[in-house]
Design a protein that fits this description.
- This protein has 225 residues and is of the alpha+beta class.
- The chain contains 6 helices and 5 strands.
- The protein has helices at residues 2-20, 25-40, 71-85, 106-111, 143-184, 198-215, and strands at 44-51, 54-62, 90-93, 115-123, 126-135.
- Strands 2-1-5-4-3 form a 5-stranded antiparallel β-sheet.
Length: 225
């Protein structure tokens, strides 16, 4: 039937992509999002992550004939939040003009959306972000198309989970390196004042700068002379 043919075509493309992609996560993000643009004839695909400051865009792809413009800001402003608020696994809007909940929606108008798919990205079972697929015109999505988006979401979720574990391990190692250095190396302290010196600062920054940058936290450094 139609589902079998369309589904086979989409998953064959996904399988071919995975055969070509290395284990580098950024390459996987890039290829997966561009695959959705090509297979679904989408305008844009955007990945956002949920942070303490709200939704933050971190990867996107788009049709070569379409500019991103303010799409990233508009998506983060409201669409991503509504995907996570939706009671079902996916938020699928087939025709924004005919749907009373979306016909007057400011983000849809700003993006010029005729149809929309949004699915949650999950790490360890918790929703940590959203994958959004934008379409210029209304369309009736097939089961094969929705299954493809779901498969890509699951793949990206697992990849993000692995990357989070890697980041945690890296930060733990940096913290242990700092602790070991403080305990074992008296050269990190100025003999004249008893205060940490520039070498201590270098070690400390390696352990803390990454998290401060990710969380948007301010940092103060006092240099004593």
């Amino acid at each position: 039937g139609t589902f079998s043919i369309a589904g086979d075509e989409h998953f064959a493309a996904l399988s071919e992509l995975l055969d070509r992609v290395s284990m580098d996560s950024t390459q996987l993000f890039d290829h997966c999002l561009n695959l959705l643009v090509a297979q679904l004839k989408a305008q844009r695909v955007i990945m956002t992550r949920l942070t303490e400051l709200g939704f933050e865009p971190f990867w996107w792809a788009h049709d070569p004939e379409v500019t991103m413009g303010g799409a990233v800001e508009a998506d983060c402003a409201g669409l991503s939040a509504r995907v996570l608020d939706h009671h079902r696994r996916a938020l699928v809007v087939r025709n924004t003009q005919e749907d009373p909940q979306w016909s007057q929606d400011p983000e849809c108008k700003r993006l010029g959306l005729g149809a929309f798919i949004g699915m949650a990205l999950r790490e360890s079972g918790q929703a940590t972000g959203v994958l959004s697929v934008h379409f210029a015109a209304p369309r009736a999505f097939t089961k094969g198309e929705l299954a493809l988006v779901n498969a890509v979401v699951n793949l990206l979720s697992k990849t993000l989970e692995v990357e989070s574990l890697r980041a945690e391990l890296r930060m733990t190692k940096d913290a242990l390196d700092l602790t070991s250095a403080v305990v074992e190396d008296s050269a990190l302290q100025s003999p004249a004042t008893g205060l940490p010196n520039a070498r201590y600062l270098d070690v400390w920054l390696k352990a803390n700068l990454y998290m401060a940058r990710r969380k948007g936290e301010g940092m103060a450094v006092l240099v004593w002379k």
